[in-house]
Amino acid sequence: MTEAVIVEAVRTATGKRHGSLSGWHPADLLAATLTELVKRTGIDPALVDDVIAGCVNQVGSQALNIGRSAVLAAGWPESVPATTIDRQCGSSQQSAHFAAQGVISGAYDIAIACGVENMTQIPMRAQVSDPAYGQPFGPLVDARYSDRENFGQRGRINQGLSAELIAQKWGLSRRDLDEFGARSQQRAAEATKQGLFSDEILPLRAKRIDKETRELVEDGSTLSADEGIRPGTTAEKLGNLKPSFTPEGSITAGNSSQISDGASAMLIMSRERAEQLGLRPRARFHSFALAGVDPIMMLTGPIPATEKVLKKAGLTPGDIDHFEVNEAFASVVLAWLKENPVDQAKVNPLGGAIALGHPLGASGGRLMTTMLYNLERTGGRFGLQTMCEGGGLANATILERL
């Protein structure tokens, strides 16, 4: 069977809201990562069979197939096609699935999986705040869950309240969540200090949108490190933060992922094609899985997705050298750990979205890029990545380092 391999992966540093990447047009931000793939590999962009871009909020500056806009913004031949997909937070992980599966099936020789999100310019509320365009779920979905009541609300709830339900179900205390949030910050700060992200990050010129004036500000600086990391964070400091979603809750800004801006991209092709082009296959896609769960308790999908992907791979948790479990909220990862009691040193060893940020459409590629580089650095063989996704979904992927 044809093997799909990653030959290059790159990401921007993650910018915080109103930070150093907030003034970049999302198409140009994604184009920068495409350009870097060409620079690092010397590949002719005309050889790319498809560019598959993940993006969640496909409105405004992220509308009208931003994948295609990025290809054109990069100056690539007009013959290179592109599409844009949405599997919520796992969008660019799903783009990697589609790209790799296209290679395995023989539909593609070479594909790019990528993703972008500028959450400063296009906030999460952008798709639902204007009633003139209707509500996103529709009356049949609303009716299906109308008998459910949580936190004084009937029917569907937001992800923060779902994270609260997870904390309750798995018996996670506020202290548990804050200790995890602090650990994410500490790991990310130490990794940055040691330069462990340097090779995977594409430094970019800072372009900021001023929070007050909304004007574009360029001061000549460069963003080359993730902007949301807070060195010196402790569980005690996080314990002073107020709950974000319900007064008596335990989910706060300190144990939740950050609102961020960023992009990521991976060059994927058949192993045979890579060797023909003189490129080094760095990892192969070993196994894929998807899961759907209750959309009220919507963030538990990584638990069944992990079980499914390990079963497909014929592996056990003990075979995995590096786990990336997206830190949408601390309760998501801690619940996953309750069901998968693996060595916590292997889970998000360089920190996660609580510290590094979560630019929705780019995050799947960011996690996979970080996992790839760390497997190479440590000599690990297998990496497993899983992400919870809005609506009660999850992706899981196993990579094997070559």
Topology record:
Blueprint lengths: L3 E9 L2 E2 L9 H16 L8 E5 L11 H8 L8 E4 L5 H15 L4 E9 L20 H6 L4 E2 L2 E2 L4 H11 L4 H20 L7 E2 L1 E2 L2 E2 L6 E2 L4 E2 L11 H4 L21 E11 H6 L6 E10 L9 H12 L8 E4 L4 H10 L13 H4 L3 H19 L3 E8 L3 E9 L1
Parallel strand pairs: 1-8, 3-4, 3-5, 15-16
Antiparallel strand pairs: 1-13, 1-14, 2-13, 5-13, 6-7, 9-12, 10-11, 14-17, 16-17
Helix pairs in contact: 1-2, 3-12, 5-10
**Cα-atom Rg, whole angstroms?**
20 Å
Low-confidence blocks of residues: none
Cα shape: globular
| Overall mean pLDDT | 96
Structural class designation: alpha+beta
Domain Thiolase N-terminal: 5-272
Protein name: Acetyl-CoA C-acyltransferase
Domain Thiolase C-terminal: 280-401
Active site: 89 (acyl-thioester intermediate), 358 (proton acceptor), 388 (proton acceptor)
What can be said about this structure in brief?
The protein is α+β, with helices and mostly antiparallel strands.
Question: Could you explain how this protein is built, in words?
Answer:
It is a single chain. The chain is an alpha+beta fold. It is 33% helix and 21% strand. The protein has a domain at 286-401: Peroxisomal Thiolase, Chain A, domain 1 (3-Layer(aba) Sandwich). It contains twelve helices and 17 strands. The strands form four sheets. Strands 1, 2, 3, 4, 5, 8, 13, 14, 15, 16 and 17 form an eleven-stranded mixed sheet that branches. A two-stranded antiparallel ribbon has the order 6-7. A two-stranded antiparallel sheet has the order 9-12. Helix 2 links the parallel strand 3 (50-54) and strand 4 (82-85).
